[in-house]
Amino acid sequence: MSNWSTEDLINLKEITNHKVIYDGYEFVWMVRLDSTWSRHCARNFDDYNTPISWIYFNISKWNSEYIKGQRDYLKEMRCNLDIEIKITEISREASIKTKQKVLEIISLKPSISSKEIAEILDITIRSVERHRK
Description:
Layout: H1 6-12, E1 18-22, E2 27-33, E3 36-39, H2 49-92, H3 98-108, H4 114-121, H5 125-132
Antiparallel strand pairs: 1-2, 2-3
């Protein structure tokens, strides 16, 4: 996957954001990102057929990359929702001690803050920090 942002991919996969211009000597591939036209390819071309074929080829690649990014986003969202469901189930379990709940929540979501855990379990941040140690 490239380093293009989602906004850039949206623009790049749109054919109307590409054009080939003739500078008087050679043909130049231009692209419009952030509402400004700029040179997309450092290379100049002897005829206009080559950059146009490159445009078609790359639009297909950018569209595939955009779709893959959307799939990855949805996959990650599903995973995060599964984790949130498990955390909620842990917080509602009456037979588990608070310390065990804190440790299980941390194991499911290591990046979670003490404040978030305290809000989920309805305890103080200090209690969470004590159980975290």
